[in-house]
Amino acid sequence: MGRKTIEPQTSAGSPEAYWDRAAATYIRDFSGTLIGQTRRRSVWRDLDRVFLPGQRILELNCGTGEDAIHLAARGIRVLACDISPRMIQLAREHATTAALDGMLNFRVVPTENIETLESEAPFDGAFSNFSGLNCVEDLSAVARNLAQLLKPRASLLVCVIGHLVPWEIVWFLAHGKPGRAFARALANTELIEAGDLKIQRPSVREMARLFAPDFELRGWRGVGIAVPPSYMEPWARRFPEVTRLLARADNWIDRWPLFRNLGDCVLIEFARTEATRAC
To answer: Is the pLDDT of residue 197 over 80?
Structure first.
């Protein structure tokens, strides 16, 4: 699985520590849930369309490795990075279990430090799934660093948090929590666990501005429009057939101009421009 690396130590109260704690229950809380599985399959539709067998792809915030393993099974080599040593440990174990570790290289590298991968460039494309970039403060710097790592015209797919989620508004209003119902629409930032993690919610337009001029926007679609957010998993388990029908509805409406802005997440497709600025 590539060369041996020395993993950095984490400290309490840091983003690394937050995600190390989250790793213990990540599969139970998201990847292994019915809603989480429908979301991931939705994103895989575009990963499979954009990235081709034989290519070498960079993944940011890979978590426990499900997306990298999916691409490796299709004959795509992936260098998958994450800020959390524990997430990377689990990802390596999953890759070994799937007998795909020869196609995968997992590395503890925060997204803010991807310039350290310059010696391993160029990559044929890159992606970041499920809101990892929402945890990055300086996205313009990430865009500049990514541009140095990708080939001209290479594809970049990023899945970030949506702004207006009808399911969320209805759910929390029904539970007497109007503040939670409209939190996304009213605030662009959020602190989690006493400030260990800062979440930012840039719009698609803002993402396009932050990634220019190194990347140009190709398009975007909603993820989780009809399917409810992951905290409604008990409801989804109670009505699995309804959840599957809603997932099929998502596949139909997720690119419509009105509906694509109503997803729990938004999947944005960029292309690296021909010219790249010097670092």
So the answer is: no
Would you say residue 16 has pLDDT above 90? no
Residues 270 and 155 sit within 8 Å (Cβ to Cβ): yes
User: Dihedral through CA 148, CA 158, CA 11, CA 141, nearest 10?
Assistant: 40
**Per-residue pLDDT reduced to its tens digit, 153-180:** 999 999 999 989 999 999 999 999 998 8
Q: How many domains does the chain have?
A: 1
What's the N-to-C CA distance of the chain in angstroms? 30
pLDDT at 36 over 50: yes
Query: Mean pLDDT over residues 115-127, rounded?
Result: 97
User: Could you tell me if residue 226 is inside a domain?
Assistant: yes
CATH code of the domain in which 158 resides? 3.40.50.150
- What does the DSSP 8-state code read for residue 9? P
Question: Which runs of consecutive H residues, i.e. helices, occur in 81-138?
Answer: 85-97
Residue 258: give the domain boundaries: 15-163+199-272
Q: Beta 104-108 vs 197-200: how paired, if at all?
A: unpaired
pLDDT at 127 over 90: yes
pTM of the model: 0.90
In the chain, where does DSSP find H-type helix? 15-23, 26, 34-50, 66-73, 85-97, 139-149, 166-174, 178-181, 183-186, 204-211, 233-238, 240-253
Which of 18, 10, 103, 19 has its CA nearest to residue 61?
A: 19
Count the neighbouring beta carbons within 10 Å of the beta carbon of residue 65. Answer: 27
- Domain for residue 179, yes or no? no
Asked if residue 5 belongs to a domain, the reply is no
pLDDT at 53 (0 to 100): 98
Please indicate, yes or no, if residue 67 is contained in any of the structural domains.
Answer: yes
